[in-house]
From TrEMBL:
Gene3D superfamilies: NAD(P)-binding Rossmann-like Domain (3.40.50.720), P-loop containing nucleotide triphosphate hydrolases (3.40.50.300)
Originating species: Sphingomonas plantiphila
Positions of the D-glutamate N-acetyltransferase-like C-terminal domain: 142-335
Top-level taxonomy: Bacteria, Pseudomonadati, Pseudomonadota, Alphaproteobacteria, Sphingomonadales
Name under which the protein is recorded: DUF1611 domain-containing protein
Source superkingdom: Bacteria
D-glutamate N-acetyltransferase-like N-terminal domain segment(s): 58-136
Length: 346
């Protein structure tokens, strides 16, 4: 392993098991932190707390903070990554309730828990801890552009919240199963909570974005792989900046394009349509060549959760033939995913 951000500095210090707080969120894409923890750290999740019947659900048992505490929970995690990373006033009574029930609070929002007067006062009064994950390390350098040793894979997307983290985790796991020296590099709050380390790239000042990506994935042995979690999309009108900084700084040898079939418009941004996956390939190569002239596409990761198994298999097979590269759903796995792994490693 070649990890500059050790688990001892990350998730192992976060108190768990967790109660997942979903607030009043009605779009599943904004609850990706909760879904990510459910899917990749299920042993650390005891239940969920929703404020309304319309709120997105993870399918975990609904319970109050007091009930969660009685079942062993030690913290409540804000399982939402909404636009702007804000903690709205309607949530704050529930946060205080969790503190009063004996739970710490964990958040990956831009708005920090300690900056909420009623939450900070309750935590101080009750002796509870507030854990803000979306805080980058100090003294990040400006990128040098220097080519680093080792191999790197970056997941990129046609939009936000459609599988870049899941794909990176699945690929890193598949590499490890094949005996390859590999690290998953987390670049968002959920990935950091799952893996125990990383840098929240969207909290880094723009001038230092590529520099943060460089220190996240340092020099390594020639046969070592860093599988880097992507953020945003190069075509997103709000979040393209973090995507480009991550692309330039990570200098990927291989990238995988992540896409959700059936999604037509960009999440949270009315009027902007997604581009075809081939255009994302072309754009990523054009921009990525600036820091790695040898960059190539290893294939495509499709989030087919809205399709049944037969429809998903048929779609991915047809798209693979059309695009000339493997298309797979890493959650479904199978031969298509094996082909994607082989293509990335080729």
């Amino acid at each position: 392993m070649n990890a500059p951000f050790s688990a001892s500095a990350g998730m192992s210090m976060l108190p768990h098991p967790y109660l997942l707080f979903l607030g009043d969120t009605e779009q599943a894409g904004f609850a990706k932190t909760a879904f990510g923890l459910r899917d990749w750290a299920a042993d650390k999740c005891v239940g969920e707390l929703r404020l309304t019947d319309a709120t997105v659900s993870t399918g975990l048992t609904a319970m109050s903070p007091a009930e969660a505490r009685s079942r062993g929970a030690r913290a409540m995690v804000i399982g939402v990554a909404n636009q702007g990373g804000v903690i709205p006033p309607a949530w704050r009574a529930s946060l205080v309730e969790a503190l009063e029930a004996g739970l710490d609070l964990i958040a990956g929002m831009h708005m920090r828990l300690a900056d909420l007067p009623e939450v900070a006062a309750a935590a101080k009064r009750l002796g509870r801890r507030l854990h803000d994950v979306r805080v980058p390390p100090a003294n990040i350098p400006v990128a040098s552009g220097r080519k680093r040793s080792g191999k790197r894979l970056l997941t990129v997307g046609t939009d936000c919240a459609l599988g870049k983290k899941y794909t990176a985790l699945a690929l890193a796991g598949a590499f490890a199963e094949r005996g390859i020296d590999v690290d998953f590099r987390a670049t968002g709050q959920t990935g950091i909570m799952i893996s125990g380390g990383g840098i929240p790239m969207d909290a880094v000042v723009s001038d230092f974005e590529a520099g943060a990506a460089e220190i996240l994935s340092p020099d390594a042995a020639p046969d070592h792989w860093d599988v880097i979690e992507g953020q945003g999309s190069l075509i997103h009108p709000a979040y393209a900046a973090v995507s480009l900084g991550l692309l330039h700084g990570s200098q990927p040898d291989v990238f995988v394009v992540c896409h959700e079939p059936g999604r037509t418009h960009m999440l949270g941004t009315a009027g902007y349509r997604l581009l075809p996956v081939q255009e994302i390939v072309d754009l990523t190569i054009a921009l990525g060549r600036r820091t790695n002239p040898s960059i190539r596409c290893g294939g495509f990761s499709f989030n087919t959760s809205a399709l049944d198994a037969d429809a998903a298999e048929d779609l991915m097979a047809r798209e693979s033939e059309r695009l000339g590269l493997p298309v797979a759903d890493p959650v479904r796995g199978g031969p298509a995913f094996d082909a994607l792994v082989a293509s990335c490693l080729a």
